[in-house]
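for the writeup, i need someone to sanity check this before i put it in the appendix. the sequnce is what the collaborator sent (i think, or maybe the updated version? ugh). structure was predicted straight from it, no edits. if anything looks off just tell me and ill rerun, i have time this weekend
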Amino acid sequence: MLIGFTALLLVLLVSGMPVAFTLMISGVLGMLFFLGGPASFAQIPVIAYKTLDDFVLTAVPLYILMSQILLKGRVGNQLFELGSRWLGHLPGGLGVATIFACAIFAAISGSSVATAVTIGAMAIPEMLKRGYKREVVLGTVAAGGTLGILIPPSIPMILYGSITDESVGKLFLSGIVPGTLLTLFFIVYVVCRSWSMERQAPSPWNVRWEILKENFWGLLLPVLVVGGIYTGAFTPTEAAAVGTLYSLVITFFVYRSVTVKDMPEILEDTVRTTSMIFAIMIGAMLFGFILTVLQVPQAIMALVTESDLNRWIIFVGVNIVLLILGCILETVSIILITLPMLFPVMRQLGFDLIWFNVVMLINMELALISPPIGMNLFVIKGISPDSKLQQIITGSMPFAAIMALEILLLCLVPELATWLPRVLK
């Protein structure tokens, strides 16, 4: 039955049907054939209501709204300019500035696609003009954009917490050290790759301080959101509301880059993205309901616990499956489809679920720049139409290797993800 459901999913996805409707159709067909026919359809509205009846999920549309406001307000462009003024004189300085801007904007927006589009639109032409190799430029932007789902706040982390009942605050904390390390690893690679390039002259200190002063309010946003959560000033959901209000204030009254006329487009994009995520959630829960009734998770658990395989072999297998899925689905879909089955298995094997959250997200980051349909590859192709897809893939591969090495490092030193949540509680 599991093979049959998987085949049905793949056929519908290959046909071009949206993920949400693919999952819903699979769930409805499962009810029709295995749960007594049309009479079981009464469960559909109940499942849909229970799926979205969670206060934590209020943060999803708020963080999306905040991301759209900042995107329209060109805050990312200003961050890139800040990085280029302060770091542009280093070896590979503009590449370093790009990674820096991606990391900061990721911490503000929580979106990989928004980060890649916002920073890439300004960084790619500027770096190409300065003589950087096209593959290095494209790979830097594609990989830098993936930091959006690891550095908090992160919508995938909110969904992970909603499914596993783990504290969203702890999940946010778990991504800070690995996200910072990954950013540093990216920077080291860019510096080493660009060491022989001609370096630009350092910007005068008065120019540096002036642009830092101009960006002060934008840089304060992640401090406000993340700091407010960990000082107990507000919950992660309340932090989303505070961050959204703050982003409105600075883009309307400080930067004056957003006007009332921009709000209909911002709200429309927010509603569209939120509806897509919630529709996928409902479809995933319908599909998961059928699997639960058919006792698929229990069968998987029994298979795992009764096998003589080492738990790390199973862990490697799980990561390979996640990576393959990441090449054909987006992050939200993968988390919602696989996590209800994976997290009890990981818990049974003795893995820390806070730690597994970070490993899973880095795996998803890796998938975002993995062919054939890594989402960030096509995002970069969209903002750089003169570039070939092969060039983007070639430039992204070293960064993909760095991500794989970070997963290995997390396996060897799990405290990188668990230490901060344990200390700050």
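The longest helix spans residues 263-293. The two ends are 43 Å apart (CA to CA).
thx in advance!!
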